[in-house]
Amino acid sequence: MKKTSLKVSALALLALAASCGNPGSNGQLVGDQSRMNYKPPMPIGMMFVPSGSFKMGASDEDIRGRNDASVHTVQMVGFYMDATEISNQEYRQFTNWVRDSIANTLLGNFKDNPDGSQRVDYKRINWRDPELQDQLASMYVPAEQSGWGRKEIDASKLVYTYKTFDYAAAVQNQNDSRDKYVKINDVKSYPDTTVWIRQFNYAFNEPIAMQYFWFAGFNRYPVVGITHKQATAFCNWRTDMWVAEREKARLYTEGRFRLPTEQEWEWAARGGRNQSPYPWGGPYIINKKGCYLANFKPLRGNYAADGGLYTVPVDWYAANDYGLKNMSGNVSEWTASAYYGGSYNQMADINPNVGYNAKESDPLFMKRKVVRGGSWRDVSYYLQVGTRDFEFEDTAKAYIGFRCIYTQVAPALTNRRPIR
Question: Across the strands, what pairs with 73?
C-alpha cells in the first residue's frame, strides 16, 4: 500500500509541474500567459503621426535644393511627436530638476539601492531658506559679482550627467566588451541667454536676453539658446522621468524620448500632404484673408508683418493635418541626423537616418546636425518642408529650438489590419 501511494503521489506532482508551466493550457500551445496585456500610453502634449510612405526631398520648383535633397521614396514607422516646440516653461522643469538634484547631492540626501549602492534622494529645495542658502553657497555667484547686487544661482554649475549606450555600434562589433560603448555625458543644462545679444550687432537686445528664459510672460515661447547636446540631454532626462513614474505603477515602458531624424521630421511636417511645399499645403504663405500662416521674415525684412517681431508662443498659428503647430517658422528645430550633401542617395528605404562613417579624428565627424523648418529670421524658402540646413552641434542660436518624438514600434507598425 505504501508503494502504491508513493507512486500516485509522484504522478500527481508530475501533473502539477506540467500544469504550472502553462496553467489552463490543457497541453495546448497557448503562448506565455505570465505577461499582462499591453496598452500603449499616450504622452501628454504629443500627437500621433501614423506610419506611411512619402516622397522626401525638394519640390520641383527648388532647383538648388534638388541637388542637395533629391526626391527619394521612404517608408516611416509611426510615432508620437510634441504638438509644439519645447517651451521655456517646459525646459525650466528640466533645469530646476538639475539644480535641485545637485543641491540634494551637496546636502547628502541619498537613498540605498537594492544592490547596496546609493542614489540621490530627490527632494524639492526651498531656495528661500537662508540656512540652506548658506549650506549651498558653492552653487551661487556672490552678490558683488552677479551684476544685479544680489547673489544668484551659478548657471555654469547646473551640469546634467547621464550615460548612453551605442547600441548600433555594439551590434556591429559583438566581440568587443560592452563597456566600450558606454559613454558618460556631462552637459550644461542652462540655455545660453546671451544669444539674443550676439544675434544682432549694434543693437539693444539686453532686455530680451535678461528676461526671455525665466520671465513668466515668455512661458509659452519656444526655448532657444540650446545646443544639440542640450536638446539630447533633455530627451534623456524626460525619458528617465517617464520610466521612473511608469515603473512605480508597474507599467511597461516601450520607447524613449529623442530628437526626430531628418526623415521623421519631414514626414511629420508634411501632415499627409505628400508633395506640398508647406505644412498647410501651398503654394502660398498667406491665406484668403491676407493673414500669414507662419512666423518668418516676410516681404523685404518686415519682421512684424506676420504678427511676431521675433519668436511667438509655441501654440500660435494653425496646426497641420497631424495636429502639429509651427512646423514651419518661429524657430528652426534640431534633428538627430548628421548633415552632408547627397546623403539622400545613400540612405535606407525604411526608417532611414544618415550619419558619418568617419573616424573621430575627422573634424566634421557628426558635428554638423540638420535643422529644419525655418525660423522667425528666415525667408520663406527655409519654411518649405523639403529644405535642408545645418548648424554645428555645439552652437546655440536665438532661432533654433527643438521638439521630441516618442516611438512605439509595436502599435505603430501598420495602420491597416491584414487582409484575411
Answer: 55
Give the pLDDT confidence of 312-327 residue by residue, as tens digits: 999 999 999 999 999 9
Please give the Cα distance from 237 to 257 (Å, whole number). 9
Number of other residues whose CB lies within 10 A of the CB of residue 275:
14
Q: What is the pLDDT of residue 56?
A: 83
The ranges assigned to domains in the chain are 50-87+190-412
Cβ atoms of residues 268 and 328 within 8 Å: no
Q: Are 272 and 322 in contact (CB under 8 A)?
A: yes
CB of 42 closer than 8 Å to CB of 323: no
CATH fold, domain 50-87+190-412, is paralog of FGE (formylglycine-generating enzyme) (3.90.1580)
Q: Does the pLDDT value for residue 76 go beyond 70?
A: yes
Residues in contact with 33: Cβ distance below 8 Å, sequence separation at least 6, in sequence order: 22, 23, 24, 25
State how far the alpha carbon of 196 is from the alpha carbons of 272, 392, 397, 398, in Å: 35, 18, 8, 6
